[in-house]
Amino acid sequence: IGQQAYYFDSIDSTQNQALKMAEDPANEGAVIIAARQTGGRGRSGRKWVSPKGGIWISIILQPEFDISITTLFPIASALALSLAIEKTFLIKPELKWPNDLTIKGKKLAGMLVDVSLESNKIENLVLGVGINFDVNVKQIEKSLKGTPNFYGVASLSEQNQKVKPIQLVQTFLLELEKIYKSLSAKQTKKIISEWTQRSSTIGKNVELNTVDGKIKGKAVKVDEDGALIVSDNNKTHKIIAGDIVHLSK
Ligand code: BTN
Question: What is the CA(235)–ligand 1 centre distance, in A?
Answer without folding.
Answer: 34
